[in-house]
Design a protein that fits this description.
- Helix content is 28%, strand content 21%.
- The chain is globular.
- The chain has an 8-stranded mixed beta sheet, covered by helices on one side. Strands 2-3-1-4-5-6 form a 6-stranded mixed beta sheet, with helices on both faces. It has a 3-stranded antiparallel beta sheet with strand order 7-9-8.
- The chain has 14 helices and 19 strands.
- By secondary structure, the protein is an alpha/beta fold.
Length: 516
């Protein structure tokens, strides 16, 4: 155990890749997060950070628990998109490796875990392996990952501790960064010699089945946490990862990662037990959506209580374009009233609204800058008469759920009234997971008869004060995140996986993914 102040490298590349969305460029990272050095550490330590919450939590917890020498190398993050361009990935790796050597006491990797590169199925694992080669076999490497990560054997061989989110919606990001820092302190103090075991199931569900307040994944995570508590101090971490099906990689599949304090056999036993528990629940990882036509009927029912709809086929939080208009067109054609709909990513339309001015009416053209690219197939042009009800610069702070306390920069924003539907238009693509998207225009969520959000599941935490599960509907809409898996031509997901293969079988494997 070293007695000197630990020198800890801080870095990460955060991207959730939807194979069917457009590629992620360097500019996409610049738009969300591309920070180095002092700028990165200052943001992490700020009261309202703009970067990944777990990165900030790791830094703040390390600050609070003793001396350390942080070396903030680089953190890059993009909103969910397609595969990352080869050049972007390789330049990131080259910069990181040029800064690393065996002189570090530890490395912290902040990743999502479902990234795909133009030339690699598992770039997250490749980074972990490159970092391990650079710092040597004895330097602790700590990694935080999203619950939707696609876990690889390479990741687990290369790092010492993986801390995955336990909640979906992801409201425990701070806790996981804090846990990672506490874990590193224990390792540095000689209190742990971590042993990681990874078990992957032939189970590749869609994201709408991976909520944790109820449903099979939540039960599995709770089961794992009970077993962790019962282990005393023998187990450091239990993480269950639901996978991100739209990555379309061989690594797709529900994964269990257990880190023991020093006994690999204990970790292996628990990982297999949790895997068996999940496998018995596999039929529960199939979920029906509300049909499109039924959603219109519900919207027109003036006698029912207020409800919220998820435009599940167009979730920007999973790589959706944020600009499909099919559902909006149907609502307008049906003459639905007192509807709040957010948020449409359309910089040109937002700009037109600002030029028209508050209180004016104009001809609103949705998707006027649409191309013929495959990933814009559902971004249909829509021309309607609209009134400008609100204008905003898009600089806001999240209020509830996964965006709470985080700076959001949405660019020029507008609130348009189109018949009985009020539509939020934004200039930076983002899922509407927080009431602040509506409240920045003074809209009262409680006064709306129907709220519609372009989000998959994270909106549930943001809008929980108004809508419980009985008032929440996931609508079968089109777009890049349609959870109806039969609509997609997956080429790399293991086809022997449930639910693709309803009679899939699994037996506990002979485990050999230890770091050598």
């Amino acid at each position: 155990m070293s007695t000197r102040t630990p020198k800890v490298a801080l870095l990460g590349l955060i991207l959730e890749s939807n194979r069917f969305a457009r590629p992620a460029t360097l500019e996409d990272f610049r738009l969300l997060t591309l920070k180095r050095g002092q700028e990165l550490i200052d943001d992490a330590r700020s009261e309202i950070p703009s970067i990944a919450i777990e990165f900030s939590a790791f830094v703040k917890t390390m600050d609070a628990t003793g001396d350390w020498d942080p070396v903030p190398i680089i953190l890059m993050a993009s909103r969910p998109l397609g595969v990352v361009q080869c050049e972007v990935f390789e330049n990131f790796c080259a910069e990181v490796i040029s800064r690393l050597d065996p002189g570090y006491e530890a490395v912290y990797l902040c990743h999502h875990g479902a990234m795909v590169a133009e030339h690699l199925h598992d770039p997250d694992g490749a980074i972990a392996e490159k970092v391990r080669a650079a710092v040597g076999p004895e330097t602790p490497i700590i990694m935080t990952l999203d619950l939707h990560a696609n876990i690889s054997a390479g990741m687990c061989r290369s790092v010492d501790l993986i801390c995955g989110y336990r909640t979906n919606p992801h409201v425990d990001q701070f806790d996981r960064g804090q846990e990672a820092a506490f874990g590193l302190r224990q390792i540095l103090a000689g209190m742990a010699m971590p042993k990681i075991v990874h078990v992957k199931l032939p189970l590749a569900p869609s994201s709408i089945t991976l909520l944790t307040a109820d449903g099979p994944l939540g039960r599995a995570i709770d089961f794992g946490q009970r077993r962790l508590a019962e282990s005393g101090s023998r187990i450091m971490n239990v993480s269950v990862f639901g996978n991100f099906i739209f990555s379309d990689v061989p690594e797709n599949g529900v994964s269990i990662v257990v880190t023991a304090r020093d006994d690999r056999d204990i970790a292996a036993s628990l990982a297999s037990e949790i895997a068996a528990f999940i496998w018995d629940l596999r039929d529960d990882f199939v979920k029906a959506l509300t049909p499109f036509e039924k959603a219109i009927e519900i919207a027109l029912d003036e006698a029912r209580a207020p409800v919220i709809f998820a435009d599940s086929g167009d979730n920007p939080g999973g790589g959706g374009s944020g600009r499909t208009t099919g559902f909006l067109s149907a609502l307008l054609a049906s003459d639905a009233r007192n509807v709040l709909y957010g948020s449409f990513f359309d910089p040109a339309l937002a700009r037109d609204a600002h030029q028209s001015g508050l209180g004016t009416s104009f001809s609103a053209v949705f998707n006027q800058e649409r191309s013929d690219a495959a990933w814009e197939a559902w971004d249909e042009r829509l021309v309607v008469d609209a009134k400008v009800m609100g204008l905003h610069n898009g600089e806001i702070v999240g209020k509830l759920g996964i965006m709470a306390g985080r700076k959001l920069s949405l660019g020029l924003c507008a609130l348009l009234e189109i018949s009985g539907v009020r539509v939020v238009v934004i200039s930076e693509r983002s899922q509407t997971a927080d009431p602040c998207f509506f409240e920045m225009f003074g809209q009262d969520i409680a006064a709306a008869h129907t709220v519609i959000v372009k989000s998959r599941g994270h909106f549930r935490a943001g809008f929980a004060p108004w809508f419980d599960s009985q008032k929440t509907y996931e609508i079968d809409t089109v777009g890049l995140t349609s959870p109806v898996l039969s609509r997609w031509s997956f080429t790399n997901v293991p086809r022997s996986s449930f639910p693709f293969h309803p009679t899939a079988e699994w037996r506990a494997p002979l485990l050999d993914n230890r770091r050598r």
